[in-house]
């Protein structure tokens, strides 16, 4: 009995059901009985697809098989299981989780290649029940892998056996493009070659779309009589019907061998003859229609023959509906859910594993987890399938499928008058034989009552028969020869002249005559510019070339196009990725005809270079780029006149192409509609189909650009297996409809379609809904109703219902209202509108540039001091400067390392952000400069870059006291009950400051003062301010600070130092200091004066307050609350009613007095003498 299911919860919140079954196998009970204790602990890892696949429908077969082997071989095998979701990653993840507990794997479902290698690396057996991949037969990489589902490529033996039975030595091979069919086709060709069977024709079609069958029949029916079709059943059905409807089967000369994936279903015979959906095709299945399938031999797996098979299905349903699978098989009473054939494969997988395990355990040194030993007991032998017939497993562990041959037969005893019967089966000569024998056990109702032959008696081209001389044919031939001679004589001169024209190669261009920016498009010197449009074309022009000025007005071109000059004019050069071309006559005619085309709305073809180092095509250059680029440029405003002019240009160009010898464009899309400097639309990229036919436009099977290029292609062309490069006129009309929609929607060719291009193409190709085909949404268009109606008519599903371009011009005639009949007047009007648009765009860009400049300057001022930043903006070199006396502040947090270990990184970041935001708000009120923060370290300096006498020590000291006070009330978010212990160190002295670096400049301090300040911090005490003797002396000089001597301490690199603790301050001292203004005369800091003296001499009262926020830039702001007019003074004649600013311009060595004057000001005399301080002052309003 099995143990209860163990459900494991994996990380990430994903729940997987892991069922690992591993059985200890017992030798045949008739020979040996293995003690049950030897199989205890053996588990099988079961890997079904429960959520993605159909695993729930047949998973119960596993438990039924496990019950069988435990009973049959006296085993005690348990299991584990997990959902592999038909995904290699999930399968290997589940196998890894089971590795230490299981001895074998059953599964996985759907994907096995990588899992088989992993199982082999662990030497664990893996038996798959749903994995047809032929690559797993290579036993060098998969020595422990076996499977019970027959691989479809094994049907190749049956196909060859059937052909040999009817002596068909020539056949055509029609193959679907799925991997399973391509692998089967390769096996058929290999066996055919070994058995002297030739493949005369081979065609590959898209397995999802079977509409290509008609074309294949038309192309191949003259080269074969026997068809082997490897693909879905609808391909065979369409093929047989068209073969019959076209009259080719009127003599019963053709036969079709169709291979099916699924076993024969006698209860549903309509599926082999009816079109999709086959359950609605009863009216189509007449006896005459059924005759089309009497020449079809269908190879399908034999249906189950076990009389107890229905009981097996009921057991599977019961086990599937119970734990652990919980399938909803019992939700509808009285209804039996279908159980797929994979249930039998799953049961067989467990059964053959149980047999092999029992035999290995019976060996002297047999181990249940020896994968290679288990595999050796499985391969090269037969087993009795639960389906009722014997199945052979070859030496590679692959199951040989038991195929039967089905034919349609008329039988009046059946309700419909016909049925499908099995007429033969295949047997193996021996277990190692590569070819089977076909045994007939029924009759085939051939059309015309005879077996078709693989080749006509005289051959397909009558090459095997010699007929008597026919005088009538000879006479007719002579007449035609005479007419031909007359025609040649009449047209001789014309032909000669035409040949001379072709021989001159007027289209040929010497590659040396082209002037290109770079000969190699991939040169590092080329600049690539791409706009918003993902489908726009790359313009490759180096800025150093003479062509660079053109780039200002160019839109991007495709990455295989360069802009160059030829004979003094700018041209577009399209490079073709191929070797030099051998020019034939047809190519000469095509190139000459394309060069002769001259139309206002056709891009002029100048010539081609086919024998140079690179093959290229040269055409007229259009500086506005493509219509697609213009529509993607959101800054380009297009009014109705612009749109009407461009659309009508496109219509005129397409009318000309359709009336010319070319006939159609074939690749019409907005990227091929170019616009020149006159705003005239020109159509390009057509007519040179012989060159394009040698190049593969599809660079990658699943490439994004390939599917994007198909967004304008008509559905009938998408479905065509051999799409003509020149397209069709009706296909061009469809492409025009997409362009017209794109012009009015301005949101790409498919508007708001929320799906990748590949999905859009698949929806367009689909034929499931012909009445309402998949098209862009038009209800959001704001254009006139007649334009929407024109779009819908142009992209109808049926090409015959689409109008031609002359009819389209009539439908859109109203768009011409407002356009000038004269093309020059129309061009002038469009250029005027474009010029006005450019002026608005320049104004908008100028405003944006100004805003970005302000943001940049603000960011620079946050990184560097203002004076240093101003020097850098002027492009000046910032030289290092020595400061004789500054005070440096260092602080850190005691216990920060422990706090970091106890907190998450995000918590630490939040804490430091809150802390330094608090610190920055405090430092902004002092004449200091924050140098940097590193982790918990905080560095501040005062006295630079603007000197402030001895005030730097006082500013740093006062700031430190406020920071220490603030830290005691600071709350940590994630630890609100803990207090940060700030440790502060101060030192005063000399240092050097300068800017280091160019890409990320930093304002750095250097000198012993920095090191000493750091030592003061590192040797300090938590929640105290540790200062040096030098700093203490300056503070004593300033006065107002209470200090406490700490004593002598040992400082690394300094020896013994006497240090102090700063305890508190008297704020009145600092208030008096702030009222003093330091004045530096001509760069001499020793010249100072009192502001009272300056104002007094001018008749002004003493200021009563100072704005602290201006201290960092050395401004002193005084609130002029009681300014009095100085009577009799020639310098002053106004009433002062607003603040006054004083500063020193240290860089230029002059003093500035800035006096903002109120509304009542009547003027102020420029320049005045300060007798108290000396020097010339400039007054600025």
UniProtKB/TrEMBL annotation:
Keywords: cGMP biosynthesis, Glycoprotein, GTP-binding, Lyase, Membrane, Nucleotide-binding, Receptor, Signal, Transmembrane, Transmembrane helix. Its main location: membrane. GO terms for biological process: intracellular signal transduction; receptor guanylyl cyclase signaling pathway. One of its GO terms (cellular component) is plasma membrane. It is found in: Membrane. PROSITE patterns: GUANYLATE_CYCLASE_1 (PS00452), GUANYLATE_CYCLASE_2 (PS50125), PROTEIN_KINASE_DOM (PS50011). It catalyses: GTP = 3',5'-cyclic GMP + diphosphate. Its EC number is 4.6.1.2. It is a single-pass type I membrane protein. One of its GO terms (molecular function) is guanylate cyclase activity. The keyword Mitochondrion does not apply. Residues 887-1017 form the Guanylate cyclase domain. Residues 539-823 form the Protein kinase domain. It comes from the Eukaryota. Belongs to the adenylyl cyclase class-4/guanylyl cyclase family. PANTHER family: GUANYLATE CYCLASE 32E (PTHR11920:SF501), GUANYLYL CYCLASE (PTHR11920). This is Guanylate cyclase. It comes from Lingula anatina (Brachiopod).
């Amino acid at each position: 009995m099995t143990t209860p299911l163990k459900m494991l919860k994996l990380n990430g919140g994903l729940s997987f059901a892991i069922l690992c079954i591993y059985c200890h196998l017992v030798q045949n009970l008739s020979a040996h009985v293995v003690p049950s204790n030897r199989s205890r602990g053996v588990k099988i890892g079961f890997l079904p697809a429960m959520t993605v696949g159909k695993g729930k429908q047949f998973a119960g077969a596993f438990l039924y098989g496990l019950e069988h082997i435990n009973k049959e071989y006296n085993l005690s095998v348990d299991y584990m299981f997990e959902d592999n979701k038909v995904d290699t990653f999930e399968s290997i993840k589940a196998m890894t989780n089971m590795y230490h507990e299981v001895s074998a794997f059953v599964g996985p479902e759907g994907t096995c290649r990588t899992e088989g290698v992993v199982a082999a690396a662990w030497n664990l057996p893996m038996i798959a029940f749903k994995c047809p991949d032929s690559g797993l037969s290579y036993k060098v990489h998969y020595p422990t892998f076996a499977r019970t589902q027959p691989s479809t490529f094994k049907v190749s033996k049956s196909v060859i056996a059937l052909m040999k039975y009817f002596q068909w030595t020539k056949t055509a091979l029609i193959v679907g493009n799925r991997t399973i069919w391509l692998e089967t086709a390769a096996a058929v060709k290999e066996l055919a070659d070994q058995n002297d069977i030739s493949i005369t024709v081979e065609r590959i079609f898209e397995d999802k779309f079977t509409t290509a069958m008609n074309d294949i029949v038309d192309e191949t029916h003259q080269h074969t009589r026997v068809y082997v079709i490897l693909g879905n059943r609808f391909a065979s059905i369409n093929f047989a019907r068209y073969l019959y409807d076209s009259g080719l089967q009127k003599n019963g000369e053709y036969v079709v061998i169709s291979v099916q994936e699924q076993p024969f279903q006698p209860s549903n015979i309509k599926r082999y003859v009816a079109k999709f959906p086959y359950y609605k095709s009863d009216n189509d299945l007449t006896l005459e229609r059924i005759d089309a399938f009497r020449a079809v031999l269908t190879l399908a797996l034999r249906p189950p023959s076990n009389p107890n098979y229905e009981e097996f299905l009921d057991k599977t349903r019961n086990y599937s509906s119970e734990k652990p699978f919980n399938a909803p098989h019992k939700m509808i009473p009285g209804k039996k859910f279908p159980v797929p054939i994979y249930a039998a494969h799953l049961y067989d997988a467990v059964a053959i594993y149980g047999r092999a395990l029992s035999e290995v355990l019976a060996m002297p040194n047999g181990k249940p987890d020896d994968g290679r030993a288990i595999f050796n007991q499985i391969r090269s032998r037969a087993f009795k399938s639960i389906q009722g017939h014997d199945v052979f497993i070859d030496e590679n562990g692959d199951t040989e499928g038991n195929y039967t041959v089905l034919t349609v037969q008329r039988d009046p005893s059946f309700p419909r008058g016909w049925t499908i019967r099995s007429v033969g089966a295949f047997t193996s000569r021996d277990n190692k034989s590569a070819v089977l024998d076909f045994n007939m056990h029924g009759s085939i109702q051939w059309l015309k009552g005879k077996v078709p032959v693989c080749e006509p008696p005289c051959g397909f081209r009558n090459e095997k028969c010699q007929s008597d001389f026919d005088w009538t044919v000879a006479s007719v031939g002579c007449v035609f020869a005479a007419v031909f001679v007359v025609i040649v004589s009449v047209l001789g001169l014309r032909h000669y002249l035409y040949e001379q024209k072709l021989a001159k190669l007027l289209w040929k261009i010497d590659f040396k005559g082209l002037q290109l920016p770079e000969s190699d498009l991939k040169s590092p010197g080329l600049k690539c510019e791409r706009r918003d449009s993902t489908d726009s074309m790359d313009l490759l022009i180096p800025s150093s070339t003479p062509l660079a000025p053109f780039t200002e007005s160019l839109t991007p071109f495709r990455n295989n196009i360069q802009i160059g000059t030829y004979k003094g004019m700018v041209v577009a050069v399209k490079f073709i990725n191929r070797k030099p071309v051998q020019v034939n006559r047809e190519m000469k005619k095509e190139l000459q005809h394309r060069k002769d085309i001259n139309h206002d709305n056709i891009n002029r073809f100048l010539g081609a270079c086919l024998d140079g180092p690179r093959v290229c095509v040269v055409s007229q250059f259009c500086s506005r780029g493509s219509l697609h680029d213009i529509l993607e440029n959101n800054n380009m405003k297009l009014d109705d006149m612009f749109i009407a002019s461009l659309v009508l240009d496109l219509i005129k160009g397409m009318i000309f192409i359709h009336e010319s010898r070319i006939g159609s464009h074939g690749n019409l899309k907005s990227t091929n509609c170019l616009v020149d400097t006159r705003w005239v639309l020109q159509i390009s990229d057509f007519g040179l189909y012989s060159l394009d036919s040698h190049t593969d436009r599809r660079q990658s099977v699943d490439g994004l650009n390939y599917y994007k290029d198909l967004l304008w292609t008509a559905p009938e062309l998408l479905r065509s297996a051999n799409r003509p490069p020149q397209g069709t006129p009706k296909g061009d009309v469809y492409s025009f409809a997409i362009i017209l929609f794109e012009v009015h929607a301005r949101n790409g060719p498919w508007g708001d379609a929320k799906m990748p291009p590949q999905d859009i193409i698949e929806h367009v190709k689909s034929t499931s809904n012909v009445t309402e085909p998949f098209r862009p949404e038009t209800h959001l268009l704001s254009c006139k109703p007649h334009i929407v109606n024109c779009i819908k008519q142009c992209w109808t599903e049926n090409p015959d219902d689409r109008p031609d371009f002359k009819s389209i011009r009539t439908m859109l005639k109203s768009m011409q209202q407002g356009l000038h009949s004269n093309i020059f007047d129309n061009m002038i009007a469009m250029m005027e509108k474009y010029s006005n648009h450019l002026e608005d765009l320049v104004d908008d860009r100028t405003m944006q540039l100004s805003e970005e400049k302000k943001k940049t300057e603000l960011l620079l001022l946050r990184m560097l001091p203002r004076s240093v930043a101003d020097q850098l903006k002027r492009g000046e070199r910032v030289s290092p400067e020595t400061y004789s006396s500054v005070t440096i502040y260092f602080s850190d947090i005691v216990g920060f390392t422990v706090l970091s270990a106890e907190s998450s990184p995000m918590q630490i970041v939040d804490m430091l952000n809150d802390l330094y935001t608090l610190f920055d708000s405090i430092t902004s009120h002092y004449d200091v400069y924050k140098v940097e923060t590193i982790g918990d370290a905080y560095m501040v300096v005062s006295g630079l870059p603007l000197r402030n006498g001895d005030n730097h020590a006082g500013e740093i000291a006062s700031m430190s006291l406020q920071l220490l006070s603030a830290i005691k009330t600071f709350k940590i978010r994630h630890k609100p009950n803990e207090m940060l212990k700030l440790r502060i160190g101060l030192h005063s002295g000399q240092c050097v400051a300068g800017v280091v670096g160019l890409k990320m400049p930093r304002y750095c301090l250097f000198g012993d003062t920095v090191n000493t300040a750091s030592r003061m911090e590192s040797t300090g005490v938590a929640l105290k301010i540790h200062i040096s003797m030098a700093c203490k002396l300056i503070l004593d000089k300033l006065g107002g600070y209470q200090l406490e001597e700490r004593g002598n301490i040992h400082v690394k690199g300094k020896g013994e130092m006497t240090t102090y603790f700063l305890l508190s301050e008297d704020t009145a001292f600092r208030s008096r200091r702030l009222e003093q203004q330091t004045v530096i005369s001509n760069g001499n800091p020793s010249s100072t004066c009192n502001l009272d003296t300056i104002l007094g001499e001018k008749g002004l009262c003493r200021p009563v307050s100072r704005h602290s926020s201006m201290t960092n830039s050395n401004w002193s702001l005084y609130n002029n609350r009681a300014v009095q007019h100085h009577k009799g003074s020639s310098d002053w004649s106004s009433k002062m009613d607003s603040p006054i600013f004083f500063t020193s311009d240290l860089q230029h060595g002059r003093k500035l007095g800035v006096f903002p004057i109120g509304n009542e000001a009547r003027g102020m005399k420029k320049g005045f003498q300060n007798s108290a301080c000396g020097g010339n002052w400039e007054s600025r309003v």
